[in-house]
Each structure stands twice: as structure tokens, then as C-alpha cells.
Write a structure and sequence with these properties.
Radius of gyration of chain A: 31 Å
Helix content of chain B: 25-40%
Number of helices of chain A: 16
CATH architecture of the largest domain in chain B: 3-Layer(aba) Sandwich
Distance between the termini of chain B: 34 Å
Helix content of chain A: 55-70%
Structural class of chain B: alpha/beta
Oligomer: heterodimer
Number of domains of chain A: 2
Chain lengths: 445, 311
């Protein structure tokens, strides 16, 4: 036990004192926050650009329709030819020219309208212009069939089906997606952790092999002890780094937001609205209620249970994968030889993430979601995506959770046993580039 | 029996490859024991079994009279053939770590390290990283961490490879001192001549089998074939040689008329040299007369050949 402790301590210290580790630890949050600030800044810059469009309306149907908005200004041209209008638009450096031909009817005029610009125009600009035409066309057509604007407004209502669970609780639409995203966040965290820090373990094993210190060490401790110590030590270093990242990124972000006065809620929503929407969607009267419902739903997510199982799945999943990484490190002589072995490890992880995002979003309790949440190499990710939906009635059936955990624990024991065997033989093999066949043979040594 | 280590019919297979075939050895306490044989003979596998890095398929190993147990690793010091240290770790920290893994307490390890660093005059290396040291310097550290926990049995696999001659001599002297202090020592090497003069006992391993073992002096006695190198001062070398050739079995002769020196090898029928010396001393003055003692590698080759003939 005390030897294991010594190994953990050495591995931990070796990792956290490593220069590139220290640099990455402190640079990453700065880079991350820098990126966010940059994106926010660019979005702001992007938004603040005001485009000027010239309009040559020879039909005079659209005289009153082009009103300036924060992003677009309009200059009306009169009594000049189309060519002259194009020239002056270009020479003034305006964004483009909207030409409406002198037709007898509004519909014909709209059909004949052309937008000229130097390059192919921005979709938001086009959408804004189209919106204006659409609005006038609808008005005209309504008038033609004898329906007033006010009557039209009364028949144009948005319909939303109310939903409730059998127990009578009102449920909100999209909450499954939100829950899956929360679960997906946990799953993604596990995947990233495995890939980054599993690599740590592997490189640490390779380092011991290439520096030839390995045989000195295992004449004092059991190979399994060494492997375990390396996995735990490197993982603790990983957790330290992760914690520093989260705390410092949070602090930095807060500081930056305060300094630059950026509204963080706007960051998640960068898609621009149509520039000149004449019919802004009115805030739905039930909006506050819905928000309240979402908050309640989120509150109802069994966080304690979720975090508990996150820890369980994280530990088992991470130990399974990092022992495979350790075995790979033991099998090879240098890092370039690891590629052929790493791909098959990453594969189930990627599969879990994608299957999770596609099928768990769709149906958290469908056969694919259930299957992948039982299969041990994907369950740490997929099950965590399902769990925010709750456990037991309406959520993940208890038997599935238990089966998944039993399978995972069994696989954990099996894989660690196999990995330890490969590790034990591999660390003493020098100068060979092993094949899968070779490694399979080692299992019988 | 006063042995530090006994191997009893130890067999080890790797897949279909037989690495050790019923090897039995007895290594006396406080001796220097040579485990000799070509590369791939099975020496390293045997050593790894002694260090409990791998385990025998069948057969038993006894350490100091007891079946080998995990706690024995702290009584064995092992310098592997493939050896090295953590490159980016500081010398002192690394030595403390390795010593603690062998079961020493931190304070004990520190005291002993001080002693060894002073002894080998490398005290100022404590805070340097291994990657900053030369290979020879690193080997000294490696030696210290091997012997630091005062093991009862020291095992050196290819001990002097990687050492420059000066350091090799320093280490050789240290090993002899450790032996004088009561430690038992195993040298394993394929370069038999490098340890021959140090070993009291040897075992020859070939193709997973032990082909010969015992006290080196006795083995040499058994293998010596009464061949002597003779150097004579004689002016009439040619004639003398002819005369000798008629009476004894002479080979490899060489006569230098200018210096008047005659060299040759003679094969005598027995250990008794009196007849030959009497015969020669009446005819020429003897410049030298030395028994040719077979070297370990001679013995090895001879044994392997005779084994092959028998098979």
C-alpha cells in the first residue's frame, strides 16, 4: 500500500512539475477566455456594420416601405436611369441597389425587381428586402380577396399542443433535448477526460520504457501496482488541471465580462435576426410561464443522483480506458507506434457521443439508446445522457441501470486484468513493434 | 547447506518457446557467482524469476533457505541489463524514491545516500537532472541505487557494459568491497572473460539448459589438458625442436634464430612435468613454462561441442 502511495506521489509530481503541463494548465483558460472574448467582440463588430442600400423605385408602389433599421439604411434615388443609379451606387461605395421597374401593378413590379450588388449579397440583407416585398404582396392579395388586415391577424394564430405526463405534471416541450444536453455534457466530459488523460498514462508508460527505468522499478514493486499507481497519479494530475481550468476560466470570464461589459446571455445566441423584420414576433403572453416551467423541470432533474452516477460511471469508464492506454504504452516502444492501437479505443467513445446525441435526443428510451447504455464501452457516456430524465418511472428503468453497472464493473475487472497482463509482458519487450497477434500471444505467457 | 539461493528444476515457457528447462542451481553465501552463456540462453529470464518479475511454470526457488516470497525483493539488489533512470527527475529525489520502493525509510535512505555520494565523490549532483549527466555519471547513480538498501544478494546483468574503463574499475572495487562485507553476488554475462577473474563459482547456460556448474577452480582443473606454453633460449633451435618433436607432442612452434628464442606448446601425458623439464633443462635454458588454463569461454565451447556430439 505504501509503495502504491509512493508511486502515485511520484507520478503526480512528475506530471504537475512538467513544464508543458504547467504551461498548458495556465495558458488554456486564457486561450479559452480569449477565444470567447474574440468571438463576442467580432460578433459585436459584425453587428455594428451598417449597410446603405440605394433604391430606384420606378413603380412608386414601395415609396413608404423602406425604413431604416440599426443595420440598414436606405437612400432613395429618383429620376435617373438604371445605369446611372448603378454607377452612383458603386461610386458612393454603397452596398447595393434595389431596382423596381415601372410596372402597372404591385405584383408585377415585385416580380420584376432586381437587387444589384458588387458581390453576391448577404443573406440577411436579402431576407430583409424579401420580407418587405412579402408583406406588401400579402396586403395586396388580402385586399384583392376582400379580407382586412385585422381579420387576417385574428385567424393567424400559433398553435402549440399542451403536453403532460400521466401523473398529471405539465411537461414542457424540448425538455428532453435539454436533459440530453445536460447528460451529453457529462458524457462529453468523460470522453475528453479519457482521451486527454488516458494519453498521459500511455506516455508515462512509454517514458519508463524508453528510459529503461522500468525493470529497476518492477524489481521492487509488482507491475500491477505500478500500473495502478501510474493511472491514479496521472488522473489526479488531470483532475487538478481540470479543476484549475474550470475555476480559473470561470474567474477570468467573469473579470472579462465585467471589464468589457458584455452580456453573457447574448453569447449563446449569435444567429442574426432578419435585418428588417416588419413583423417582430410579439413576446408570447405565456413566455414567462414557459420559462418558469423550464426552470422547474431543470430543478426537478435529480441532480444528486446524476452526480453520484456521473462519479461512478466516470471512475469505471476512465479506469477501463486508461488501463487499455497503459497496456498500449507497454506494448509499444515509441509514441508513433501507438496509432494503430489508439483508433480502436477512440472508436467506441466517438460512437457513444454520436449515438448519444442522435438517438438519445430523439428517444431517450428507444432500443438504440438502451443498447448503447448497456454496452460497457459506451455506457458511461450514453447512460449519463439518459439519466437526467430520471430513474424509475418515466426515466431509466432500474433494471437497465443495474445491468449497465454490472456489465461495466465486470468489463472493468476483465479489461484491467487483460491490460495488466499485456502491461506485465510488454514493459519488458524492447525493440519490437508488436502486432495484435503478438499481443494476443502475450496473454498466454 | 549454506546457500543464499537455490533454484530447483526451474522451468519457464513463453508460448511455445522454452526459456528455461529444469534449471537447478545452488549459489553459496558470500560468493561471487557467474551465470554465463550466450545471448538468449535464458540468463535474464532466470534472473527475472529470482527478482519475482516473472514466475516459473514449474520448479521452486529458495532464498536464504526459504521459498521465495514477495518480501524478499527488499533483500535483493538488481542491476538489469536494460537499465536507466527517469531522465527528467533530479538525482537525489530519484534515488530517494527508488530506495523507498525497496523499503527504506526516507531518513534512512537519505543518510545512506549521503554516505554513497561522498564515497563516490558525487555530492554536488544531488539537484541535477539525469538528462544533464553523462552516461558514465548516470551509471554511478544506477549502481548506488542498486546497492543502497544493503541487499543480501546482488544481481548484476551484464555488469560492466556501458561503463568506461575507469568507472568499471571503481565499480568493480566497490563490488569486491561489498563481497568482503558479506554480500553474495551474481554476475550474469555473455562476455565471460569480463567477469572470469572475479567469479568463484560459475554456471554455464546454453539453450535454456544448464550445461555445467560448480566451483570455477575445480572446473578449470577438470578441464585442463596438461598443455604448457614453453619458451627456451637455444642457439640450435631447429635441431632441438626436431629432437623434442620426436619425444613429446609439440605444436604451435616458432623459432627466432636472431634472438635464439624457441616457443612452442607441449601436451604432456599427465600433470607430472618433471620428466619434461628434466629433459629440456639439459638441452637449453628455460625462459618460461606456463600451464595453459582453459578460459570459461573455452570450457563453454568445449562443453557445447561435446554435448552436440553426444546428441
Amino acid at each position: 500500500m505504501s509503495k502504491l502511495w509512493l508511486i502515485i506521489k511520484r507520478e503526480y509530481l512528475a506530471k504537475v512539475r512538467n513544464k508543458s503541463f504547467v504551461i498548458m494548465t495556465f495558458l488554456s483558460p486564457i486561450l479559452m477566455v480569449g477565444m470567447i472574448v474574440l468571438i463576442a467582440y467580432l460578433t459585436k463588430v459584425n453587428d455594428s456594420e451598417r449597410r446603405v442600400l440605394t433604391i430606384l423605385d420606378e413603380s412608386v408602389f414601395f415609396d413608404q416601405d423602406f425604413n431604416p433599421t440599426p443595420s440598414t439604411a436606405y437612400v432613395s434615388l429618383r429620376d435617373i436611369s438604371l445605369e446611372a443609379a448603378k454607377d452612383s451606387t458603386a461610386s458612393l461605395g454603397y452596398y447595393g441597389l434595389l431596382y423596381i421597374p415601372p410596372e402597372s401593378t404591385l405584383i408585377k413590379a415585385a416580380e420584376g425587381a432586381v437587387f444589384f450588388s458588387r458581390e453576391s449579397p448577404n443573406t440577411a440583407v436579402l431576407a430583409g428586402l424579401e420580407e418587405i416585398f412579402q408583406h406588401r404582396l400579402r396586403e395586396q392579395k388580402l385586399k384583392d380577396i376582400g379580407v382586412s388586415e385585422a381579420d387576417f391577424a385574428t385567424i393567424q394564430n400559433q398553435y402549440e399542443l399542451n403536453t403532460a405526463t400521466f401523473t398529471g405534471r405539465q411537461s414542457v416541450k424540448g425538455i428532453n433535448e435539454i436533459k440530453a444536453i445536460i447528460g451529453g455534457g457529462f458524457g462529453y466530459l468523460i470522453m475528453m477526460f479519457i482521451i486527454i488523460y488516458g494519453g498521459f498514462v500511455m506516455r508515462s508508460v512509454i517514458e519508463e520504457k524508453t528510459s529503461r527505468v522500468i525493470e529497476v522499478i518492477i524489481s521492487s514493486v509488482k507491475p500491477f501496482q505500478l500500473m495502478l499507481g501510474k493511472i491514479i497519479g496521472n488522473s489526479l494530475a488531470g483532475i487538478t488541471q481540470f479543476a484549475i481550468w474550470i475555476v480559473s476560466a470561470g474567474l477570468l470570464l467573469l473579470v472579462v465580462l465585467l471589464i468589457f461589459d458584455i452580456d453573457p446571455t447574448g453569447l449563446g445566441n449569435p444567429t442574426p435576426m432578419p435585418a428588417n423584420s416588419l413583423m417582430p414576433t410579439p413576446p408570447s403572453p405565456s413566455g414567462v410561464d414557459t420559462l418558469q416551467q423550464y426552470a422547474e423541470e431543470l430543478y426537478r432533474i435529480p441532480w444528486a443522483m446524476l452526480i453520484f452516477f456521473f462519479v461512478v460511471y466516470f471512475l469505471l469508464g476512465y479506469l477501463i480506458y486508461s488501463s487499455i492506454y497503459a497496456a498500449i504504452g507497454a506494448a509499444v516502444d515509441n509514441e508513433t507506434d501507438t496509432q494503430q492501437f489508439i483508433f480502436p479505443i477512440i472508436l467506441p467513445l466517438m460512437l457513444a457521443i454520436y449515438v448519444g446525441f442522435f438517438s438519445v435526443f430523439n428517444n431517450p428510451h428507444g432500443p438504440i439508446a438502451v443498447g448503447f447504455s448497456l454496452f460497457p464501452l459506451t455506457s458511461p457516456i450514453v447512460m449519463l445522457m439518459r439519466l437526467p430524465g430520471g430513474l424509475g418511472e418515466g426515466g431509466v428503468p432500474v433494471w437497465q441501470l443495474i445491468t449497465s453497472l454490472v456489465l461495466l464493473a465486470g468489463t472493468f475487472l476483465g479489461i484491467v486484468w487483460l491490460a495488466a497482463k499485456i502491461y506485465r509482458v510488454g514493459i519488458l519487450m524492447y525493440g519490437k513493434k508488436p502486432s495484435y497477434r503478438e499481443i494476443f500471444k502475450w496473454l498466454k505467457y | 547447506m549454506n546457500t543464499i539461493l537455490v533454484a530447483d528444476e526451474v522451468t519457464k515457457k513463453f508460448g511455445n518457446h522454452l526459456a528455461l528447462n529444469k534449471i537447478s542451481l545452488e549459489i553459496p553465501k558470500n560468493s561471487i557467482y557467474g551465470l554465463l552463456g550466450p545471448n538468449g540462453a535464458g540468463k535474464t529470464t532466470l534472473i527475472r524469476i529470482i527478482n519475482q518479475i516473472t514466475y516459473p511454470d514449474t520448479g521452486k526457488v529458495y532464498f536464504d533457505g526459504q521459498p521465495l516470497q514477495p518480501r524478499h525483493v527488499s533483500m535483493i539488489g538488481y542491476l538489469p541489463e536494460e537499465r536507466g533512470l527517469y531522465k527528467s527527475m533530479k538525482v537525489g529525489e530519484q534515488a530517494l524514491y527508488l530506495a523507498q520502493l525497496k523499503g527504506l525509510s526516507l531518513s534512512e535512505a537519505r543518510t545512506r545516500l549521503k554516505y554513497w555520494f561522498d564515497r563516490l565523490d558525487i555530492g554536488d549532483w544531488w539537484n541535477r537532472k539525469i538528462q544533464e549527466l553523462s552516461k558514465g555519471m548516470a551509471q554511478k547513480i544506477q549502481f548506488i541505487v542498486t546497492v543502497l538498501h544493503k541487499p543480501k544478494l546482488l544481481i548484476f546483468d551484464e555488469p560492466f557494459s556501458g561503463f568506461d574503463p575507469i568507472n568499471a574499475n571503481i565499480i568493480k572495487d566497490e563490488i569486491l568491497q561489498l563481497k568482503a562485507d558479506g554480500t553474495s553476488i551474481i554476475f550474469s554475462t555473455h562476455r565471460m572473460e569480463s567477469v572470469e577473474e572475479l567469479c568463484e563459482y560459475i554456471a554455464l547456460i546454453h539453450n535454456a539448459e544448464k550445461i555445467l556448474d560448480g566451483k570455477l577452480s575445480e572446473i578449470k582443473k577438470a578441464y585442463k589438458n596438461n598443455v604448457f606454453n614453453v619458451g627456451l633460449m637455444a642457439n640450435n633451435g631447429e635441431e632441438l625442436l626436431q629432437e623434442l618433436d620426436g619425444n613429446f607432442s609439440i605444436s604451435g612452434s616458432n623459432y627466432d634464430p636472431e634472438e635464439g628464442q624457441l616457443h612452442f606448446r607441449v601436451q604432456l601425458p599427465s600433470e607430472d612435468t618433471r620428466d619434461f623439464l628434466q629433459y629440456v633443462s639439459g638441452r637449453a635454458s628455460i625462459h618460461n613454462f606456463v600451464e595453459t588454463i582453459p578460459s570459461a569461454s573455452d570450457i563453454f565451447i568445449q562443453t557445447v561441442q561435446s554435448k552436440n556430439l553426444h546428441e
